[in-house]
Design brief:
Layout (H helix, E strand, L loop, with lengths): L1 E7 L5 E11 L3 E12 L2 E10 L6 E6 L2 E2 L7 E2 L6 E12 L7 H7 L1 E11 L5
Amino acid sequence: MILDGPFELDPSRRYSVDLMSFRVDMCIRRISVGLFAYFGPYVVQISALFLGRWHEEEVSLIKPGVNFLTMESISMLPPKCDGVVLVAWGEPYVWGKDSVTWEELKESDYHGMKLVLNQYEELTE
């Protein structure tokens, strides 16, 4: 399920992700959420995590200086990146409800994302 995006980028530029977080109700469990970049027909995962039983309302995938998936200090987007998208997958469970659809989850329990990109030029010799 696409939670947010896609957000188009200028493929002639290079980008790194300085910050990426999203807000979701704390009662949501058993889903994974990830930031993906696409370039042409290809898609790559930049960062992701699993929302288990206990999590904060604002969940960070990337903070300045650390990508919580790769533990790298810089989260580069691939060259010629056309855009990014926030995707969720799994079997969503909302505490206190028998079942929930992805559409219901996105409508009532997802509250947006914060994405900060750094644009730069590569040095050529």
